[in-house]
Design goal:
heterodimer, A: about 450 residues, mainly beta, Rossmann fold, Neuraminidase, 2 domains, 6-stranded mixed sheet, 4-stranded antiparallel sheet, 5 helices, globular, B: about 270 residues, mainly alpha, Fusion Protein Consisting Of Minor Coat Protein, Glycine Rich Linker, Tola, And A His Tag, Chain: A, Domain 2, 3-stranded antiparallel sheet, 11 helices, 3 strands, about 65% helix, elongated
Chain lengths: ~450, ~270
């Protein structure tokens, strides 16, 4: 009898084991952009009037900028407002999650704003509709004229919460604004918000300006300009407008770029008729030679940790991309594909290098891993170059020129952006033709 | 006495007669009930489940691996990891990387082989070429990942033996969740992002309780991507309610674990 009992006991144990936890591997999902509802911000009735701003429409305006930002990422699908089921003020207090789920939204943004004593106070909340809970909430105060930036900051926070990456909306793009006929172009330095608003011109256009580049740590810009046919490298502080000459460089100077800590400039210039790569310390103004080779070395770009430099060289015959340590040692060729490679730019995330490739008369913008493997060509066109990374390393901005007729007609140069997945190619709206874009770091950082 | 006996006999015979008459009616009802259909289902499942499925899976898996080796130049198979001895990370970088690997993995998943293999490779490092080192980092991470991936597929192979879900039932559930899961597209493809969610289900497939198995990882610094993915997976499960579960065998599937692994998708 005892034996039987023991047997029975073991049998029960065995049965329990047989019903071990079922595991199901989910390796696919849908790649549709996340449906998100951006409810207009509720404008507090106690709000006071403020010069030049339509307070009543401010809530709508801010939410529509947030929507535009999201749409532009390709990762989110902002739902149409007509389908919204709750008024903004009530939704902000406590959304009826079931109702929002009915319109297939997975996330909801609500908020309210108050303009009082010349200050704009904004708060917003992001709701997870499936889990019926708040994901993030934030309130801040600023001057009302800053409302566009408020919208961008809200976008950044939500983007960060939903993707795990930093956003890139509260940023600016500096570029060369071009106008006039092709053989007599007027080139001005210009800056705009990442979404194309607030364009400002920083130079008058009587001198040729080239290759503006942002300092990755602050709002300083370095660019090249020709002064009496001598190339000069300038530093410009966007916030204060002060400008200084870093130095006169003989011969052809190319593409100055900041080091990741913002303390050095790396560039190439021709000394004794041969282009090599140099760095310059901005405090001491000491110039240091990095490469010393009989070939043409140009377009240097630092890795985000500052330990390596990627650059172009034709030392193998055709122009290819090389990587070396930041002191110039350990040079290694990383591109071996067919065609000519140029303008390597190290991603701020450090995992990829963006480049321009020319093959059979066509231009490609692409990315590859830092060892040159995994090359992916994102876009192909007649002429395009100068990729620049968004601060989170997800989007590239570059410029594209169209083919001109014999007299230069039909020519245009525009800024475009593309995701590193190769999807979501978009043209950025600029007032004039534009080239040589450079993306700033986050302003609110 | 005899009289009462006769009474008893007639009474009993009436009872027996009635029973015989009514018995066919009682028997007929169970025949009409659906269980026979479900019994058939189980028989089919037994066949598909045990002898064929794991083999087929293995073969498919092997074929896939072969194809990967042939076609993609991006995903270095294990053979590439062996090349490493002549160009491998700096000692200090190597350490950093190891730490990351440790952090990333869930305690149960960090199996000695993974660590050992990298340790073994480390001993053979001689070269000083730093760039090559930096470069190889990516490859090595993938090699490690490849191993973990293999582990996952192994576990799923084991599953088809052990679990009560037939392949078709499992597929139905999987297909349903595919539809609900909006994969966050911004995630890096070269990180170990496996989210395991344990569910307790009601009989109709609605969720009684859901739990992310490594939920403490969500709030660790530097694990934002994991958090985002875990939340998206949880959202998918909730949106999918009620889950498409088989009509029978509640005891078998009332507790179920879903492993969300977006790596394949993010690569493509």
């Amino acid at each position: 009898m005892k034996k039987l009992l023991i047997l029975f006991f073991f049998k029960i144990l065995f049965i329990n084991n047989a019903f071990a936890l079922i595991e199901v591997d989910i390796t696919r999902g849908n790649l549709d952009p996340l449906p998100i509802a951006v409810s207009p911000l509720h404008v507090d009735i106690k709000s006071e009037a403020f010069d030049g701003i339509k307070i009543k429409e401010l809530g709508e305006n801010i939410s529509s900028i947030v929507e535009k930002n999201f749409k532009a990422t390709g990762l989110f699908n902002p739902l149409k407002k007509e389908a919204f089921v709750q008024k903004p003020d009530i939704a902000h207090l406590k959304p009826r999650f079931e109702d929002w789920r009915l319109i297939k939204a997975q996330a909801l943004v609500t908020g309210k704003l108050l303009v009082k004593d010349g200050k704009l106070k904004v708060e917003f909340r992001l709701w997870d509709l499936a889990a019926a809970k708040e994901m993030t909430a934030l309130a801040f105060t600023t001057t009302p004229s800053n409302w566009r930036r408020v919208a961008h900051i809200i976008s950044d926070k939500i983007y960060e919460r939903l993707t795990g990456e930093e956003g890139y909306f509260d940023t600016r793009i500096i570029f060369v604004a071009e106008s006039g006929p092709k053989n007599q172009r007027i080139k001005k330095l210009a800056i705009m918000d990442q979404d194309g608003a607030n364009t400002k011109y920083l130079t008058l256009g009587n001198e040729l300006v080239l290759t503006p580049r942002f300092n990755p740590t602050n709002q300083m810009v370095t660019y090249m300009s020709y002064f009496r046919n001598m190339p000069r490298v300038y530093l410009l502080d966007i916030e204060t407008g002060t400008q200084e000459v870093v130095g006169n460089f003989p011969g052809m100077t190319f593409a100055p770029r900041f080091s990741p800590d913002g303390k050095k400039i790396v560039m190439s210039f021709a000394k004794d008729g041969n282009s090599d790569i140099y760095t310059m310390d901005l405090d001491t103004r000491v110039v240091e030679r990095i490469t010393n080779h009989s070939s043409i070395d140009t377009s240097p770009s630092f890795s985000p940790d500052g330990k390596y430099i990627a650059f172009n060289s034709d030392r193998s015959g055709l122009q290819q991309i090389y990587v070396m340590r930041s002191d110039g040692s350990g040079v290694k060729r990383i591109t071996f594909g067919n065609g000519i490679y140029g303008t390597p730019v190290w991603s701020p995330r450090g995992d990829l290098i963006a480049f321009t490739k020319m093959r059979k008369g066509r231009f490609f913008i692409g990315v590859m891993r830092i060892d040159g493997t995994g090359e992916r060509l994102l876009t192909e066109n007649y002429y395009q170059e100068a990729p620049s990374w968004s601060p989170n390393g997800r989007v590239l901005v570059f410029y594209r020129e169209t083919k001109a007729g014999t007299k230069g007609e039909g020519f245009s140069a525009k800024l475009w952006s593309i995701d590193i997945t190769g999807y979501n190619e978009r043209r950025l709206n600029t007032e004039t033709d534009a080239s040589d874009p450079s993306w700033s770091s986050l302003l609110s950082k | 006495m005899i009289r009462s006996l006769i009474y008893s006999l007639t009474f009993h015979s009436v009872v027996i007669f009635l029973t015989i008459l009514s018995l066919p009616f009682m028997l007929r009802e169970p025949i009409d009930l659906p269980p026979i259909v479900s019994v058939e289902l189980i028989q089919i499942s037994d066949k598909t489940n045990i002898p064929y499925a794991p083999k087929a899976r293995k073969i498919i898996e092997e074929k896939k691996k072969e194809e990967e080796r042939l076609v993609s130049e991006q995903a270095p198979p294990t053979a590439k990891a062996k090349e490493k001895p002549d160009r491998i990370p700096l000692p200090d970088e190597k350490k950093e990387e190891k730490k990351i690997v440790k952090k990333k993995q869930n305690p149960e998943e960090v199996k000695p082989e993974i660590r050992q293999s990298s340790e073994f490779e480390k001993k053979e490092i001689i070269d000083t070429n730093q760039i090559a080192a930096l470069i190889d980092k990516a490859k090595e991470e993938q090699a490690v990942k490849e191993k973990t991936k293999q582990k996952i597929t192994q576990s799923s192979q084991k599953n088809s033996f052990a679990t009560g879900l037939t392949l078709s039932e499992e597929d139905a559930l999987r297909a349903q969740i595919f539809g609900c899961w909006s994969v966050p597209l911004g995630l890096p493809y070269d990180e170990d992002l496996l989210v395991r969610i344990k569910l307790k289900l009601k009989q109709d497939g609605t969720i009684m309780k859901s739990e992310i198995l490594d939920h403490q990882r969500m709030n660790r610094p530097g694990q934002k991507f994991y958090k985002v993915l875990a939340e998206s997976a949880l959202r998918a499960v909730r949106l999918c309610q009620p889950l498409k579960v088989p009509p029978t065998g509640y005891d078998k599937w009332k507790n179920i674990q879903l492993n969300f692994n977006p790596t394949e998708m993010l690569k493509g």
